[in-house]
Here is the input.
Amino acid sequence: MYATLLITLVVVYEVSTRYFLNMADSRAIFVSVWLYGILFTLGGAYTLREGGHVSVDIVYRKVPEKVRKVLDVVDIGIVTLTGIILILVGTPIAWRSFMIREVDSSLGIVFAPPIWWFKWIAVISVVLITLQTIPMMLEKTRQWR
Here is the structure.
């Protein structure tokens, strides 16, 4: 919720300086991209926790209950497996970025903000989503009994 408010303020600032002062501030664009990334990744973990994801269930509603239970377990299994793979791939990348104190120099040498911390946000978000799939999987398999 706070990230959305902060994104709004940053975008209003950027648009105001660009249109009213005729001076685009590339730092504001950069910060808004970071905030959108944080909102997206951590928002996905939060939405999974709250059970708020939307699914297209045209076929799902037409299959028998037993098939739905199997599909639920397969679905959660795919999310868990994907999460594990992303953690195994992303952690070394984030660790290396932290060790070299990586910065984004695409905006020039005057404004080269650190980006190593942003890579850890992606890893942490995937860890949170993956950890949430474990009790979900246990609940779905318990329903089979």
Notes: The radius of gyration is 20 Å. The longest helix spans residues 65-99. Residues 1-53 form one domain.
